[in-house]
Every structure is written in C-alpha cells, then in structure tokens.
Amino acid sequence: MHRPVLLALFSLCVSSQLNFADNAVIKVERAWIQAVPQVSDTTAAYMRIINLSGSPLKLTSASSPAAKTVEPMITTRKTQGGQEIMGMQSVNELVIPAGGSLELKPGGDHLMIMGLNVHPREGELIKLTLRFAPGDQKFDLEVPVSKEEPK
Ligand SMILES: [Cu+2]
After folding, report:
1. pLDDT in tens, 10-26
2. The pTM of the whole model exceeds 0.85
3. How far does the centroid of ligand 1 lie from the alpha carbon of residue 14, in Å?
4. Separation of 105 CA from ligand 1 center, angstroms?
5. By mean pLDDT, which of 24-33, 59-68, 95-104 is the weakest?
6. Residue among 45, 18, 16, 14 nearest 28 (CA)
C-alpha cells in the first residue's frame, strides 16, 4: 500500500513548481500572508517568486476565494517637509527577470488582498492563484497565515 503515499508526495512537489508550455519554469518560496486583526478586511501576501526560464515573466494579477480582489502593488516613498511618507500604488505588472527573482516583502512590492470575506487566522492556509504573462499562465498555491515572516 505504498502507492497512495507516493502520489501524494508527487502532487506536493508539482504544487510549488510549474512548467509552462514554453518551458518557462516558476518557483515560489517562503510565501506567507500577514495575520491581521479581526476588524481589518485588508491584508497582504509576501513571497519570493523565482523565474528559472531564459526570458522575463510578469506577475499581472492574482485572486483568492478568501477575498474580493488581490492586486500587485509597489510601495512608494516621498519626502515632504523633511519627513518620509510611505504609500502604495497598484501596478499592472511586476517583472521577474530571466533567471532572477521577485521579492514580495513588507515595505516593498506585495500582493494586496482586499475585501476579505473570511478572517484569516494564524496557521491557516489561504488559496491564492497567481497569473503570469506572457500568456495567461496560472499558478495555484496555498499560503500560510503568519504574524511575521516565517523563518
Ligand atoms: Cu498595498
């Protein structure tokens, strides 16, 4: 009765790495979603997305059954009256260079999760679908909810 165990292991492997039709390969590491207070209906997802292919990829959008919208965003910084003011802005795409990676992290680029329809609790897994261009390539993953970046 070893076969079911092997199949389960195999499906775990393919969920973190995807081979696209044009042989581009993407890998996602250290994904996590920020745990937020009950009253908040907004949070963010962070991860490292690795592009193992020889051409650039663009993260164009994302979605989750747990929220109304998930949008790629950048953090902006401007100085006003000697004070640095941090803001954020939706972008159409975040580029992952050929053979390089894209870091989504607090205070930097991130995936904004807005209009939560469930309250994500620490330790829970939230389904997230990433979409990449060229093509409309989908990448599904389950992301743990955590108070801080997992070690
Ligand atoms: Cu944001």
Report:
1. 444 434 555 554 454 88
2. no
3. 29
4. 11
5. 24-33
6. 16
